[in-house]
Structure formats: C-alpha cells, structure tokens
Specification:
Elements (H helix, E strand, L loop, with lengths): L1 E9 L6 E7 L2 H10 L2 E8 H8 L4 H8 L6 H21 L1
C-alpha cells in the first residue's frame, strides 16, 4: 500500500482541506475521493510529500501538479500554513 494526500475541498463547501489515505494505486485513491464527493486540486505521493517536508520549492511543485492556475496561490498557502496537519494525516494514513 502506498500513501497519498490530496488537497482540495468537499463538494459545495469551498473551504480548502487535505485528505490522506493508503491505497494500492493512485487511480484507486482518486476513485475513493470522487466517491466521497471530494474535489482534489493536487494529489501528492508519499515521495512528493517528503520532498516538500525536506525543503523542496512548494511553488514550483504546485505549478507542476495543479492544472487550475487560479488555485496555485491557495494551494501553496495551504501547504505552507498547514504542513504540520498534513504530516499528521500522512502518518495516520
């Protein structure tokens, strides 16, 4: 099982949050998110997440992984402000 974390929002609720879980493949993780009405803007693998934890350029990673350029600032700000929460969620996943 691999760990993934997604940054996005739940359905009509526009508050940005993150969801972490273990799954056999990225496709299965995406399917689980969609089935639970979660709309992901960015999904990180465990490897990508630890690159951020170890000082990788967050902005550069966001611009590569988030297709909607209107969300780049929101996602970057969320990662910078909530990295400790994301780390806790990845540990539990």
């Amino acid at each position: 099982m691999k760990k993934y974390i997604a940054i996005g929002h739940w359905g009509e609720n526009k508050n940005i949050t993150s969801v972490a879980n273990s799954s056999t493949t990225l496709k299965n993780f995406r399917d689980d998110l969609g089935g639970n009405d979660f709309i992901p803007w960015m999904i990180l693998t465990e490897k990508s997440f630890f690159q951020i934890m170890n000082g990788a350029d967050v902005w550069q990673m966001v611009t590569k992984k988030v297709a909607n350029y209107r969300k780049w600032n929101e996602v970057t700000e969320y990662i910078e402000q909530c990295l400790d929460i994301m780390e806790e969620r990845m540990t539990i996943a």
